[in-house]
Recover the amino acids of this structure.
């Protein structure tokens, strides 16, 4: 078993990865600066000033070590890596909102570029870390995904090309509107690739589409499925930017956790010197068989709640993608992985968790 350091380990993705890998016997330490405490997300005053994920790990997974560290602090980052001596680092920390990055680009830059560089360079200098996995995003492609011809259907955009299976890792990242978030994640993405090639590190990039699941505290601009359902059950109108026909491939968090576990097991014996001779960049999402539009998602909410949901439409947001679907050909061919949880199952799981956890969200 390995010693694994997970940055952003109290966020949605990092939290789930930490639990899954700990249950498989790995020794896990998570880093987080609590910059997005749950008390700023929830509605209920019952758990004000508490961090839900922190207390959840305390109660149910006490073997996971938690450290409050801001990855922008280079000296503290270096110290924790030297002391813990991780063999694997999963970098899931960072500013995650495209909307937030437009409002505060400096905060986005410092977290997503300086923070990433501190972790990555300290990993290189440690000469202990054998695998570095960077959680990136499809936003690195910007609106280049808009270059394919689309048909506007009743509830969604549809690719004109009938054999379309999604966007591959070869899609251009140039000459595109990304938002500062997309730019900062792309910079980190490229740094991770370059360090692998130049310094012989086993570095890999996962460019994620929309990840969702239980224990996701959605906010505007991030975690849209949980955020929209919270609005629906509270009787608030759901805000849609554009016409609601934009399509995303969605991946349930358990499927991502299983992929990371399989990936680490498959690469553990590979020689670092030849590891990055192949491009270790993968598009990860639900793929062509697990897509949904915003209008279709609201329709599912209406069926679950048995009521009509009010919608408020606004102008399109800068850099919004009308359709994004991950081509999973590469990840499947190299690791035999594909999603197991379809949107119907995943949305039911998420909404059931929110319904059962109303004390977290409402008084």
């Amino acid at each position: 078993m390995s010693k694994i350091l997970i940055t952003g380990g109290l966020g949605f993705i990092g939290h789930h990865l930490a639990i899954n890998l700990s249950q498989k016997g790995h020794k896990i330490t998570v880093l987080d600066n609590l910059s997005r405490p749950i008390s700023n997300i929830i509605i209920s005053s019952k758990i004000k000033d508490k961090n839900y994920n922190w207390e959840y790990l305390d109660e149910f997974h006490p073997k996971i070590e938690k450290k409050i560290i801001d990855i922008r602090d280079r000296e503290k980052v270096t110290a924790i890596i030297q002391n813990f001596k991780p063999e694997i680092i999963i970098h899931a920390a960072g500013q995650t909102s495209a909307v937030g990055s437009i409002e505060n680009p400096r905060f986005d830059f410092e977290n997503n570029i300086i923070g990433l560089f501190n972790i990555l360079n300290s990993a290189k200098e440690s000469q202990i870390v054998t695998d570095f996995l960077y959680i990136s995003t499809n936003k690195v492609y910007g609106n280049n995904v808009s270059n394919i011809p689309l048909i506007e259907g009743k509830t969604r955009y549809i690719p004109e090309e009938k054999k379309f299976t999604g966007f591959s890792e070869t899609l251009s990242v140039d000459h595109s509107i990304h938002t500062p978030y997309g730019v900062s994640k792309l910079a980190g993405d490229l740094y991770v690739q370059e360090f692998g090639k130049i310094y012989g590190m086993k570095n890999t990039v996962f460019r994620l589409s929309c990840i969702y699941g239980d224990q996701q505290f959605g906010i505007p601009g991030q975690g849209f499925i949980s955020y929209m359902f919270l609005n629906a059950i509270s009787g608030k109108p759901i805000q849609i930017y554009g016409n609601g026909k934009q399509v995303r491939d969605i991946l349930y968090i358990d499927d991502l956790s299983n992929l990371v576990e399989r990936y680490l097991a498959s690469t553990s014996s590979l020689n670092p010197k030849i590891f990055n001779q192949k491009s270790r960049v993968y598009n990860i999402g639900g793929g062509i068989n697990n897509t949904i539009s915003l209008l279709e998602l609201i329709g599912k909410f209406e069926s679950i709640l048995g009521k009509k949901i009010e919608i408020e439409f606004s102008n399109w947001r800068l850099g919004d993608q009308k359709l994004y679907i991950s081509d999973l050909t590469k990840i499947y061919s190299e690791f035999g992985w594909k999603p197991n949880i379809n949107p119907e199952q995943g949305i039911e799981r998420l909404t059931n968790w929110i319904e059962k956890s109303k004390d977290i969200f409402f008084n």
